[in-house]
Design goal:
The complex is a heterodimer of chains A (148) and B (122).
Chain A (H helix, E strand, L loop, with lengths): L1 E4 L5 H9 L7 E8 L3 E2 L2 E10 L3 H16 L4 E7 L1 E3 L4 E9 L2 H18 L2 E7 L2 E4 L4 H8 L3
Parallel strand pairs in A: 1-5
Antiparallel strand pairs in A: 2-7, 3-4, 4-6, 4-8, 5-7, 8-9
Helix pairs in contact in A: 2-3, 3-4
Chain B lengths: L6 H20 L10 E8 L1 H7 L3 E7 L5 H9 L5 H4 L7 E4 L2 E3 L10 E5 L6
Parallel strand pairs in B: 1-5
Antiparallel strand pairs in B: 1-2, 3-4, 3-5
Classes of the chains: A alpha+beta (148), B alpha+beta (122).
């Protein structure tokens, strides 16, 4: 299941929902992305996340579908927050359930790598020098390329 | 391509579109007649939304424009800031009907095109 929302999320509750007491699940891997207070040497006071409603959900669905083709998965949960956020806030959750840990570890990393390079989200930071759009990183693109 | 003030190009574009509209209005309706203009919605996001000063616009472009590359050339011909921001070598991405696209992606009447900086979510 995929959600794009302004509200925060509860990791424990989301993992419980994902598992649904399914005894075939032997592994759950969950990644949580957080807002840091430092980026490119500047203090970050706040951040706003913009997205492309409609395309965002489709892009995330496609990434999860691609992961499900590659690995044996028994459930996935993706939550991405939008709107204003502050340092220490949770931004993103990717949780994957599978029978064995290998599939869950790999699929979780795959989904995050493609989310960072294919899903239409943009971060704008508020620093002591004013507001600025965050630039995409070359390292994110190469992280996604290694799955090809 | 050099960036000019775009006034001449805009005038040229406007004449083409005006002629196309006249043609459409007064030509005899007939199945199989090619529509001389194409209406599309363009969406802008993040930094480009701010630079262009708008989140979206409806455009009527000559029907001879059939690909993303053709549309980008048409947008650049309007002058600044499109000419500089959408110049070759600038980092931006295009989606057509909410799917990532490239220069050769074909466009059709009523399509939704989005132009935005490389994404930075997660």
């Amino acid at each position: 299941m995929i959600s794009v929302q302004t509200e925060d999320f509860d990791l424990g509750a989301e993992v419980r929902l994902l598992r649904q007491e399914n005894p075939a699940i032997g592994a759950v891997v969950a990644f949580v992305g957080l807002v840091r207070d430092l980026n490119d040497g500047d203090r970050v006071a706040a951040m706003t996340l913009e997205h492309y409603p409609g395309m965002t959900e489709k892009a995330l669905q496609q990434i999860v579908a691609d992961a499900s083709q590659r690995w044996q998965l028994l459930g996935t949960r993706v939550i991405h927050r939008v709107g204003p956020l502050r340092p220490t806030d949770q931004i993103v959750l990717v949780a994957v359930a599978s029978a064995h840990r290998g599939d869950a570890f790999a699929a979780c990393e795959f989904i995050m790598d493609f989310l960072k390079t294919r899903a239409p989200f943009w971060k704008k930071e508020s620093t002591e020098n004013g507001e600025r759009w965050v630039d995409a990183r070359e390292s994110d693109e190469s992280a996604a390329d290694r799955w090809n | 391509m050099q960036c000019s003030n775009g006034l001449l190009s805009i005038r040229k574009n406007r004449i083409v579109v005006a002629l196309a509209l006249l043609f459409q209005k007064y030509s005899v309706p007939h199945i199989g007649v090619t529509n001389p203009i194409m209406q599309c919605e363009i969406l802008y996001f993040a930094r480009l939304r701010e630079t262009f000063g708008k989140a979206h616009e409806s455009v009527a472009v000559p029907a001879s424009i059939t690909s993303v590359d053709g549309l980008l050339e048409w947008l650049r011909s309007r002058g600044e800031p499109w000419c500089s921001e959408l110049a070759a070598g600038k980092a931006f991405r295009i989606a057509v009907n909410q799917e990532m696209a490239n220069g050769s992606t074909t466009l059709a009447e009523g399509c939704e095109i989005a132009i935005f900086p490389p994404v930075t979510g997660g």
